[in-house]
Amino acid sequence: MDGRKEIIGIIKELKNVSEIDESIDLIESGFLDSFDIINLISKIEERFKIKIMGEDIIPENLNSIDSIVNLINKTKI
Amino acid sequence: MIYLLQDFISKNAKKYPFKLMIQDGDKTISYGEMDKFTNKFAQFLVLHGVKRGDRVCFHMKKSIKAFKSLISILKADSVYVPLNISTPHQRNQFILEDAQCKFIICDAKSFSKTLEMLDGFNQKIKIINIDSQSDTPQELDSLQKNIEVIFLEDLDKFSDQKREYQNIDLDLAYIIYTSGSTGLPKGVMISHKNVIDYSNWTVDFFKVDENDRLSNHPGLYFDLSTFDVYTAFKSGASLHLVPYTTSMFPIKVIEFIEKNKLTLWNSVPSLITFIAKSGVLKKGRMPSLKKITFCGEVMPTQTIIEWMKVYPHIKYVNQYGPTETTCASMYYEIKEIPTDPAKPIPIGTAIPNTEVFALKENNQKIDIEEVGELHIRGSGNGLGYWNNERLTQKSFVQNFLNNCFRENVYTTGDLVKLGKDGNYDFVGRKDNQIKYMGFRVELGEIESTLDSFDYVLSSAALGTKNSEIDGTIITAFVSLKNQVEILKIKEDLGKKIPHYMVPKEIIIVDKMPLNANGKIDRLSLKSYFKKERIKKWSPK
Fold first, then answer.
1. ipTM score
2. Taking Cα atoms as reference points, which of B414, B409, B455 lies closest to residue B433?
3. What is the pLDDT of residue B468?
4. Which of B396, B429, B462 is the last residue of a domain?
């Protein structure tokens, strides 16, 4: 889906990286810190025009590109 | 009467030997177990050469073992110097060298990282592993000649009774390194008496007793932890170590407070703000929580409004203080929901046995509604900077208002305004120091590091407002000799300075704007920042 590309774009911009290693756990590996999480949520909400509930901001929903895509799809409904 | 910090633990071990002292996930330790272990381990340290006044580092993740190390170092009449295991090795090596540490304690998990950290370190050092060799899977074939490794063994041959201590309360308990403006961190020296006097106030004011359950969120290398560690140890309360990933997720923090039935939470304001912003504050949650305190940076008033609307029964206390005067020297209790979100939460007034005043440029005290530099004198005033008499003299000065006897006053560099009600408000800094997520950052240290890269022509680091976190982030403007990716600059910085000091935004400029004196024009950079954010920018 297009969302996937957009999310990769947001994270690349956030971290100033040209590639994202999709094999790693974005949280456990320390790739995303607390500042990044706050910004990532805010950027996703802005781009996708959704409101992510605090209860959904958990490692399982943010540890990979796929889980972030699922979170957005779930939130849209 | 207690004169030495380790006696807090021994006293509570006698009173409540089986009471929970520290919980780290599924691992726990009681006051009695901790007291006995550290009595033995302190003797082990002394046997292996630790002497009174020696600086002893510990290099491991925050855990029960880290606390065992810390207390044993005190019981060996020596001084603990916490290292941040996530910090670049080069910076930790600098701390070891500057503090002239001859001993470093690690555990089985941090052993190989400790060896890696010491790569290229050329002074004699003993690594003391708090775990046994059989628990530490690591080959020791190619050890550097200057390193000696000692594993924990035969601990039971030592008595579990306490040593006879030589220290007095004026002796050093710890040295914590903070960011230094010249590019190198500086070691702040704090005595047993400094911490005992501070915790006398915290236990009394927050009415903490053995039934309380406290969070421990900040790392031990961050002096904000002095609050929760010693408030708990003095009162016989339990301390619950917050895992790093928990604090990244508001709902996880709330679940952590509920699961551990915490009564007192202490952290930097940015985390408390993140929790409020994510919309997880709901009536009926966290029923055990009675007190929240925060320190280290400005607390957005809106955050307090959100919290107090849902949890009006909680006691909210803002603490203020630099590492140099032992965690906090001032406090302000927020008793009613603030009505104006634009009005800052005051830093308040001095804690007991402490005096604060603010001076104008002519060294006269400020009047109401005036702004001046905050000065602190009191029993929290530390002993200065380790091995840096020049800087100590500069920051710990004779009171300008008294010429009759020697008086140690700490000049904070913080500008404050005196309110009509006698409370002070924080206004800003006199210099280039900022707070990011509660961490104290000298922007000069970032600039010196950037300027040391051969591809950098010049650099300027600024604290800029960030609306997402309702706080300050670090932005660096860099002009380059040759083209380099921003990612590469961040990676190179990450090898030299802690991750929290690496600027979140790096903006490449063709030419750095200069003022009439030929210095980098920070005002121009700041005004640019307010207008728009673009990746490439040239000054007019």
1. 0.89
2. B414
3. 79
4. B429
